[in-house]
Design a protein that fits this description.
Blueprint lengths: L1 E6 H5 L4 E4 L11 H15 L5 E12 L4 E7 L1 H19 L9 H9 L12 E2 L3 H8 L12 H14 L5 H9 L1 E8 L6 H7 L9 H10 L4 H18 L4 H13 L8 H12 L3 H19 L7 H11 L6 H12 L5 H20 L7 H13 L4 H14 L10 H10 L7 H13 L8 H6 L4 E4 L7 H7 L3 H8 L6 E4 L2 H4 L4 H6 L23 H18 L15 E4 L12 E6 L5 E2 L3 H15 L1 H10 L3 E2 L7 E4 L2 E4 L4 H14 L7 E5 L1
Parallel strand pairs: 2-4, 2-5, 3-6
Antiparallel strand pairs: 1-6, 3-4, 7-8, 9-15, 10-11, 10-15, 12-14, 13-14
Helix pairs in contact: 2-7, 3-4, 3-6, 9-12, 10-13, 11-12, 11-15, 13-15, 14-16, 15-16, 15-17, 16-18, 17-18, 19-26, 27-28, 27-29
Length: 678
């Protein structure tokens, strides 16, 4: 590696230089804000004799015989922006819009083009992706410009500011000549560009986790291979994921490592995964592309009408993105012919039921991600999973308990009739009513669209404000009935005439033109058959809808009997469960890999050591304050950490309660620690 200070324009000079932004780099992202700062800096420089340090530009030099090619590893934003400024200066002089003593031929021939090179290499700077076309177009007439790109917008910004005579072109060009960089040239095959790239502090825009992953994958390859890998794989992955590559990679790692990386540490985990498990970059990209096609099917489910996409769309409407890793794994098993399309549909429907039942019963959602993180592994631990995939899946879900449970019929039925449906989250309320309406209905009613278009609205049968007639109809306990049942399922329906119905008595609502009696909706069918609306009829209708809900979201029945021991996943958050007498197998803390343990004491010891490493001072302070530690002779049942000891002659519940205290005091989440028991 060679590093030397030089003037920026001297870096550009050379009749055969060619600057290439590798395909693994992000697009040109500087906007008006960054360009304004640069131009304002140049205004200051133009009025002084000082130089201005621009930063570093890191490149790898390649000699292809005809041209000297520099792959720009870091500094592309500054290099591209200043090239746009130089081009604007050249164009303004060439078009006689400004007067200047600056030699326009020097600008175009020494800094912007290689006039003796072939057409595809005539322009010195080759930006990445679509930016290349936008930059090339600027060398032509204005009609050729590609609008709505940062390249064109920033060029126009410089063009306009120079035209406004804020600074003379002579002074501006002088200021550019005063810009100084540190040129870092890497030796191809010897220096590791990735390590250098990671250590650089850039004044530009932050890279996304996906940017870092892409760079890590492609940077070590030759320029030709980089280009091919980008075209054949990475760009297709970007398109498949709607350019949400960071989220996709996070889910991909969840499948591969059974760890859910922090959103800001996806690259770190990906790099570790590749270094430990991958020997062939092309095979990795093939696998990423395959799983990205599954991701595409998930996120674009609303645009598809096949059986699988229809059910996936239900999951998306419930916003259950934590299920994505398992769904992709299921799609992969289908692709490998382990399960049929019908099996996939069944599994997806069970996921919908699982998520929705928990939603109605208000089961905490924080354990959902871990459930679906390990689900694929749990299924495949059974030797006969290829023959019993769906039954094993049902078996696993229905055997989960506490915060991971699937609410059974009694709990679900009771909750759904008592829930304040009217004030339920809007998307969930619509989902509930739409699914109840369309169950076994061949003529599907698009409730969501009708409500969005104001063709339907949600109506209280017993109104929110009681009139004297309604109070008389409800009887002496009208206030209690109104308070208990107003917003519940038995009193909620759909109508296209909410404003017309208002607070009218029930029979008027039923018999009016286009009232309940004329409605073709299933939800209004029973309303045609009752003569009055009171507590009994509300309860009766609620019971009917409860029975329908138990069919729509039917509890999965499995006759599977496992020959293997059942392994159950719990977290520190499961504090209402006694683990006395249970056998612990392994644990995960935060984003670390699963660790095997032989006892609860070993769990306590290993987690304490991890917590101490995270923050030694805080850990010691907490454990001292709570008298979990002591100084003195080493006891037989103790854990030695640095220069102090922790009591460990405890029972299982004491181990866990102390860990809960320490984790909370260290401002971590209880479900950061999960463990598996038999």
């Amino acid at each position: 590696m060679k590093a030397k200070e030089k003037k920026f324009l001297h870096f550009l000079e050379g009749s055969d230089k060619h600057f290439v932004i590798p395909v693994y780099q992000r697009n040109y992202d500087w906007k008006k804000e960054q360009c304004k700062q640069l131009f304002d800096d140049l205004l200051d420089i133009g009025n002084s004799d000082r130089t201005h340090f621009l930063g570093s530009i890191v490149s790898i030099y390649h000699d292809d015989g005809d041209d000297r090619e520099y792959l720009i590893i870091d500094g592309q934003q500054r290099l591209t922006t200043l090239s746009l400024l130089l081009l604007a200066i050249y164009k303004l002089i060439d078009q006689d819009i400004v007067q200047s003593s600056v030699n326009k031929t020097q600008i175009i021939d020494e800094y912007l083009i290689n006039k003796y090179s072939e057409d595809d290499k005539k322009i010195r700077l080759k930006p990445v992706k679509n930016d290349k076309n936008a930059f090339s177009a600027l060398f032509k007439d204005e009609n050729s410009y590609l609008q709505e790109t940062n390249i064109t917008l920033n060029y126009q910004y410089f063009y306009d500011r120079i035209t406004n005579d804020e600074i003379s072109v002579d002074n501006l060009f002088y200021a550019v000549k005063q810009l100084v960089i540190v040129e870092i040239e890497l030796k191809n095959g010897e220096d590791d560009p990735q390590l250098i790239f990671e250590s650089l502090n850039s004044t530009g825009l932050d890279l996304t986790e996906a940017d870092k992953v892409r760079n890590f994958i492609l940077m070590k390859e030759s320029p030709t291979v980089q280009e091919q890998f980008y075209i054949d794989f990475w760009n297709k992955i970007e398109i498949n994921t709607n350019y949400n590559v960071s989220n996709f990679i996070r889910d991909y790692l969840t499948i591969k490592e059974r760890i859910i990386p922090n959103k800001n540490k996806v690259y770190i985990h990906f790099k570790r995964y590749v270094l430990e498990n991958v020997t062939d970059t092309k095979l990795l990209l093939i696998d990423l592309l395959k799983f990205s096609s599954f991701y595409k099917k998930i996120i674009n489910s609303k645009e598809q009408n096949d059986k699988i996409s229809i059910v996936v769309n239900k999951i998306n409407r419930l916003e259950s993105i934590v299920t994505y890793p398992f769904i992709m794994e299921v799609f992969n098993d289908h692709k490998d012919s382990i399960i049929s399309e019908g099996d996939v549909v069944s599994i997806l429907e069970i996921i919908v039921t699982f998520v929705f039942r928990r939603l109605i019963c208000e089961v905490p959602t924080n354990s959902l991600n871990k459930i679906f993180m390990t689900m694929g592994r749990e299924i495949k631990k059974h030797n006969d999973y290829e023959d019993n995939y769906v039954d094993i899946f049902k078996y696993i879900l229905t055997h989960k308990r506490l915060s991971q449970r699937m609410p059974e019929n009694d709990e679900f039925g009771s909750k759904i009739v008592k829930k304040d449906v009217y004030n339920f989250k809007s998307k969930n309320k619509l989902f509930l009513l739409e699914q109840l309406e369309n169950f076994n209905n061949k003529e599907r009613v698009d409730i969501e669209s009708l409500i969005d278009n104001n063709d339907l609205s949600i109506e209280h049968i017993m109104p929110q404000t009681l009139t004297s007639k309604w109070r008389e109809s409800l009887g002496v306990n009208f206030a209690e009935i109104h308070e208990e049942y107003l917003n519940t399922l038995g009193n909620i329906t759909l109508t296209g005439y909410n404003s017309s119905m208002s607070n009218k008595p029930f029979l008027e609502k039923r018999n009016m033109e286009k009232g309940f009696k004329e409605s073709r909706l299933y939800l209004n069918k029973s309303l045609c058959e009752v003569e009055h609306w009171d507590e009994d009829t509300i309860v009766s209708r609620a019971k009917s809808l409860e029975n329908r809900a138990l069919k729509v979201w039917g509890y999965p029945i499995s006759n599977y009997e496992s020959a293997d021991e059942i392994l159950k996943l719990f977290t520190l958050d499961d504090d209402n469960k006694s683990f006395t007498g249970e056998k612990i197998i392994s644990f995960k803390f935060m984003e670390e890999k699963e660790k095997k343990v032989n006892s609860w004491k070993e769990l306590y010891k290993k987690v304490c050591l991890i917590l101490y490493e995270l923050d030694p001072i805080k850990f010691k302070q907490i454990t001292t304050d709570y008298t979990f530690t002591y100084n003195g002779d080493i006891l037989k049942d103790s854990i030695k950490i640095d220069n102090f000891q922790i009591y460990s002659n405890l029972n299982i519940e004491s181990f866990l309660s102390r860990l809960r205290i320490i984790v909370k005091e260290m401002e971590l989440e209880l479900d950061d620690l999960s463990f598996i028991i038999k």
